[in-house]
Amino acid sequence: MSIKVKDVNYTYAENTAYEIHALKDINLEIPDGQFIGLIGHTGSGKSTLVQHLNGLIRATGGRIYFNGRDIYGENFSMKELRSKVGLVFQYPEHQLFEIDVLSDVCFGPKNLGCSREEAERKAREALRMVGMGEEYDKSSPFELSGGQKRRVAIAGVLAMEPEVLILDEPTAGLDPRGRDEILDQIERLQKERGITVILVSHSMEDVARYVDRIIVMDHGQVRFDDAPAAVFRHYKELEEIGLAAPQMTYLMHALREKGADVDTDAATVKEAADAIERWLRNRLG
Amino acid sequence: MLRDITLGQYYPAKSIIHQLDPRVKLVTTMIFIISLFVAKGITGYAVATLFLVMAVRMSRVPFKYITKGLKAVFMILMITVVFNLFLMDGEIELWRFGFLRITDKGVRTAGFMALRLIYLIIGSSIMTLTTTPNDLTDGLERLLSPLKRIHVPVHEIAMMMSIALRFIPILLEETDKIMKAQMARGADFESGNLIRKARAMVPLLVPLFISAFRRANDLAMAMEARCYHGGEGRTKMKPLHYESRDKTAYAVVWGYFLLVTAITWFQRQYGVMLL
Fold first, then answer.
1. Domain total for chain A?
2. Which of A63, A199, A223, B185 counts the most CB atoms within 10 A of its CB?
3. What one-character DSSP code corresponds to residue A98?
């Protein structure tokens, strides 16, 4: 189970005044079970790229292979692909339409041909997974708070039981607590189910804590594709393309400049605290 | 697929037509449309064609882009042509099958009707493609301002128009986004019979309506926060005023109109029908 992106190019509105070359020769391999952060500035092509992965946008050049099969091949079913590669759009709460939460989450599984009972079972499971209690099943999705709406919308994709889950800026517009809750739930999900998760974001800070691989995009190209610590080492280059490494990376580099022999790869507050502690202990002991 | 709709979409380019005062373009479009109904016979239409070709060339908008707008009215065009072709009574019968017959007059009327409709669409497309929605409503507001005296809310109408035009691309984009989001959840908008297709629209229309209302609410709030209170005493940052090129354009347009009228009058007066 893997996704392979080969020489993919995409041009918006080809041959008009609005032509934009959104993706340029993208090559990626996404193996099973990875937790990936896809980072890029606004307009870097990250949203366009993820829409290619479940066939919503057709590349103007190049090929995409899902489990070794060409998704542009003749008898490849896009519907099947979309059930395996779940995509949660930015502001997914804008897609809610049903009269109650449970029916809305059932929409996906029903489209895949599940019976009513099966769809409801999957929907309930998905809702519990995102932390929405039973008491909300019958309430209107439009009465919920912003964070709750977003969970319901994410559940709507989870209920299709995808093998790859892509979330496009899942924390946009949420308060810090809502952001942490959603990200923690996604992490737990990834661990429990062993699915591949691709987290699209423009903030290193958000993803540093969770992912085990970071892909940085800039102007339609992949600039870096490596483990977080390795990517953060390029913090000066990241700044040039309008991104920033996590604050702790800066702190650690500043400490090192002052002569402290700390591990500059520490990216989260916890890692930084540990690194400083280690350094202090070494110095004292 | 939704991006194909060109009506009301601005095409950025540097051309003399783009630079003209929006009032000139509005009046020109109107005169051109009237001229299409005044013109009779090939000579009149030849002049109109010449005028249109000139405008298209000068606008620097690719011709392919302009004709995209025609796709939307293709059905209406076909119906008009078919009705005129079969129902117009003329003297010389060209073809007959049962009660269906085509006469010379039918062919003529159908041909000119099709031409008229196509020119009408192309003519107004040039205006919308070369003028930003804001300019367009500005021009309209100024042109209609004499009506204020008889208490027509000209400013409000212009404001509503500019908001409506501004919202077309936004709502199209929103539709595209919601469609994709539902497709990602396995929705199918294309297959099935009519009832199934209509039902498939629900997951698209409900969120679209909600978003339209939300946006309207936000906009009203933002306008009020900036103390918008209608047209009374409101000044413009860039007031419209005519340049010399606008005057030249007016001269050309009126010259064209007089020419078409003169040709028609000449034909009627002397019974010379150059076809």
1. 1
2. B185
3. S
Q: What span, in angstroms and rounded, lies between the C-alpha atoms of B107 and B129?
A: 32
Are the CB atoms for A204 and A238 separated by under 8 Å? yes
Q: How many whole angstroms separate alpha carbon A275 and alpha carbon B200?
A: 56
B202 reaches A (C-beta below 8 A): yes
Nearest to B12 among A17, A51, A56 (CB): A17
pLDDT tier at B273 (50, 70, 90 boundaries)? low
* Residue type, position B39, single letter: A
Distance CA A123, CA A119 (A): 6
**Closest CA of chain A from B120, distance in Å:** 23
Q: H-helix or E-strand containing A165?
A: strand A164-168
Q: Quick one: pLDDT at residue A208?
A: 84
Is B223 part of a structural domain of the chain? no
Residue A84 lies in a domain: no
How far apart CA A262 and CA A279 sit, in angstroms, is 6
Each residue of B157-179: pLDDT tens digit?
888 888 887 788 788 889 999 99
Query: Is A31 inside any structural domain?
Result: no
Tell which residue, B100, B75, B73, B77, has the closest CA to residue B88.
Answer: B100
Mean pLDDT (chain A, rounded): 90
Residue B121 lies in a domain: yes
| pLDDT for A34 | 92
Chain B residue with CA closest to A94: the answer is B207
Burial class, A186, CB count within 10 angstroms (exposed 0-12 / middle 13-18 / buried 19+): buried
Q: A107 and B203: CB-CB below 8 Å? A: yes
- Residues with Cβ within 8 Å of A59's Cβ and at least 6 positions away in sequence, in order, are A8, A9, A10, A23, A52, A72
Is a pLDDT exceeding 80 seen at residue B235?
A: yes
> Residues of A with CB below 8 A from B182's CB?
95, 107
> Distance between CA atoms of A23 and A257, rounded to whole angstroms?
38
Domain of A256 in residue numbering reads as: 246-285
Percentage of chain A with pLDDT > 70?
99
ipTM score over 0.90, yes or no: no
Cβ(B158)–Cβ(B140) below 8 Å: yes
Strand order in the sheet with A35-40: A85-88, A164-168, A196-201, A35-40, A213-218, A221-226
Q: Which domain holds residue B61?
A: 2-131+242-270
Task: Establish if B101 belongs to a structural domain.
Answer: yes
**Which tops the pLDDT comparison, B92 or B152?**
B152
Q: Around B156, how many Cα atoms within 13 Å sit in the side-chain half-sphere?
A: 7
Q: Which residues pair with A70 in a beta bridge?
A: A65
**End-to-end Cα spacing for chain A:** 49
The structure's pTM equals: 0.74
